[in-house]
Amino acid sequence: MSFIPPPARLPFFPRVLLWLVERRMGKPLAANRLLSWYPRAFFGSGIMEALVAHDDAEVPRRLLGLVRIYTSFLVSCPFCIDLNSRGFPGKGITEQEILALQGRVPLEDVPTFSPAERAALAYVRGMCQTPIEIRESALEEMKRCFSPRGFVIVTSTCAQVNFWTRQIQALGVAPAGFSESCSILDLDAYRTLKG
């Protein structure tokens, strides 16, 4: 399904690491397989993924999940939406919040977002534009809601998802079925390749 095929035989170390990750994820990861054509990209991407925050006292798992999902929608990456949205109800994210992250409902109309979540989402919206356009009000809210450390965690999480989304879309990687049964995500609306 991708634009190019993965190598017929993966190099030894990428093959071992990929086996471990795919076993944990329960799905084949086409993007990682494709990156093994150039092992430096494979290892560099993997190291970045391993080092990015997934939970923190100041920036908890739910907020980081919202940042990942919102970034995935903003840059229209079906694979990333599928992966980052999997099991969203179990992460404390409601269907109304998903609709807001998709842009179907104004973020302001969803009362369940905390002030810190609203600040992070407004900042992420600016980070995902091309060119980046961060509003002064979004910057001030980020500074009000987060320490410099938290600010960097939110920023690096959005940037990391942006990195993966651009790479995954440019390789033509399709959704892997992490959220297959969830029609609310409407993955078909986010196709990258245009006719």
Could you give a quick summary of the protein structure above?
The protein is an all-alpha fold and 195 residues long. 56% of the residues lie in helices and 0% in strands. It is globular, with a radius of gyration of 17 Å.
Could you walk me through the main structural features you see in this protein, from its secondary elements to its overall organization?
The chain has 195 residues and is mainly α. It has 2 domains: 12-51, no CATH class; 61-190, AhpD-like (Up-down Bundle), CATH 1.20.1290. The protein has helices at 12-25, 30-35, 39-51, 61-74, 78-85, 95-102, 115-127, 136-145, 148-171. The protein is globular and about 50 Å long.
Coarse structural class: mainly alpha
CATH architecture of the largest domain: Up-down Bundle
CATH topology of the largest domain: AhpD-like
CATH superfamily membership of the largest domain: AhpD-like
- Total helices: the number is 9
